[in-house]
Amino acid sequence: MSRRISSEFKVHVTFTETDQYSLHINCGGKQTTIKGVTFEEDQDPGGGATFVPRRTIWGTSSTGDYWDSYSYDTDYITNNVSILRMNNSELYTSARFSTLSLTYYARCFRNGNYTVKLHFSEITIRGNRSFRSVGRRIFDIYIQEKLVWKDFEIKKEAHGVDKELIKESKTVEVKNKTLEIRFHWSGKGTTASPKEGTYGPLISAISIEPEFKPPHGSKSKVPIVVGASVLFLIFLIFGILWWKGCLDSKISREKALRGLDLQTGFFTFKQIKAATNNFDPINKIGEGGFGSVYKGILLDGTIIAVKQLSSKSKQGNREFVNEIGMISGLQHPNLVRLYGCCIESNQLLLVYEYMENNSLARALFVPEESPLKLDWPTRQKICIGIARGLAFLHEESALKIVHRDIKTTNILLDRDLNSKISDFGLAKLDEEENTHISTRVAGTIGYMAPEYALWGYLTYKADVYSFGVVTLEIVAGKNNMKYRPNENFVCLVDWALVLQQKGELLELVDPRLGSDVSEEEAIRMIKVAILCINAAPALRPTMSAVVSMLEGRTAVHELFTDPSTYGDELRLTALTNQFDHNSSQNPGETQRLIPSSSDAPWIGSSATTTSSDLYKKSKYLR
């Protein structure tokens, strides 16, 4: 069969005079460019017995028909049915399939050895634990008429659906200037899940590259001349637009985003407009660190939160870049999940998972707006969840990250009241060879470690300190900077240290909890928090040790801190004066400390001086 079709291929195709050395095809999709490599479009309709020659150097053939199903389109191209969260998602939004046999022919290739990469993603069978997930697509793969992979199953090889899978075959020999790749269904797997006719081979993209260095001057000079002319015209047009001042904003954004390796899905601005009903004010659920946040619903029913960057904020651009770079490579149950982003025209948007129960701050400190009643087991679960998320950032992630702005407004709660860390706009990578980083101070007063607030001395122990403050707030149900039992105390932390000296730690427990509190667990949590807020960074535990202590797997080594030693210049002067001044200027708002110098490094920048982070505007969430 393959030799007969290959003969037809010779008849129908007009060959080039120049040897070819590479080929990239976006199977079933439109032309797209990935990291400088252009994948050709492949959108011609397929069929039960179809041969399609393409341009001058490649073509396809398919055989077989779905006799048991009339639901498939005749083009034999399928599109994804859910969000794709992988590198180069443009290659996997569509795929070409066949019932029995699908063959790609590459002609006019110089004889030699090549590397063939086959890109797969199972975008039809689901993985949602329903009957739609039991389907199995199994087929064989032949290259140059040799069986390379038998009983190949995308879902099994990729460990799930909607995941990128690249199979590579090296030293593929081309002898007669032809390279043939064939996908063949041999009757294995299922045929009716998620619906009748779901079987047969499926391929998302194909890449062919030489394993030798192509000779210089082997290609025609015409493309070079044409390319140079087009490039000149582009530069001319951009030069005129720049001269008129039309490109300043766009160029700065593109420059800011250059170099990012985005491991996220891409959304079009049209998709996001539809999801948010054209950014309807009714769907506005808050103001983030540098723009508005909207609730949206995708076509597949997924609820999302869209963070929209203000077009006038340069600091916002920088934080946007930082947040993408930080979150895109992180996956953990206690970190807010980034679905993707939109970088289109004058729009910079982040698309997150939607958190039904808003922020921890709202649940603890604004009971009149929150329907949530956080009992003791829930508070303990939230606290341990935050600790696990930080342990992942500090010790388990491939990128070691210091968050720098851990506070209750940056802890979001999902439907099941699981805690998730959000807002990575101030996060900083921890270079492992450095024991600390000296940086301009950026964060929120009341949560910053003393060594960081006073001297800009940043280590992951700064996050440990902030976690200790948040833990005290969870236990007490009180805001650290707003709670002052009397004039002798600056904040909740002061009060906790005094109660430790008196042996009255249970006085910290939120009276709203009543008697439904485990005293043993409460004392353990408070003691861990006090360990974390020790003025000496070296005496604070690691977050993995914190998780172990909170879960009761290791004992808490109690350290007594003299409250008078805690009352240093930061406590007695800077904090008090700053707090009193900010309270009079902005009642009801928690202040963020930012550099006053306009030339401060971007890592410490902040787009706002308030703590109105993601999901502040709660009236839309009831």
TrEMBL record:
SUPFAM superfamilies: Protein kinase-like (PK-like)
Positions of the UniProt region annotated as Disordered: 579-600
Protein name: non-specific serine/threonine protein kinase
Molecular function in Gene Ontology: ATP binding; protein serine/threonine kinase activity
InterPro entries: Kinase-like_dom_sf (IPR011009), LRR_Rcpt-Like_S/T_Kinase (IPR051824), Malectin_dom (IPR021720), Prot_kinase_dom (IPR000719), Protein_kinase_ATP_BS (IPR017441), Ser/Thr_kinase_AS (IPR008271)
Organism from which the protein derives: Prunus yedoensis var. nudiflora
Matching Pfam families: Malectin (PF11721), Pkinase (PF00069)
This protein's GO CC annotations: membrane
Reaction equations catalysed: L-seryl-[protein] + ATP = O-phospho-L-seryl-[protein] + ADP + H(+); L-threonyl-[protein] + ATP = O-phospho-L-threonyl-[protein] + ADP + H(+)
Protein residues bound to ATP: K307
Domain of life: Eukaryota
Compartments where located: Membrane
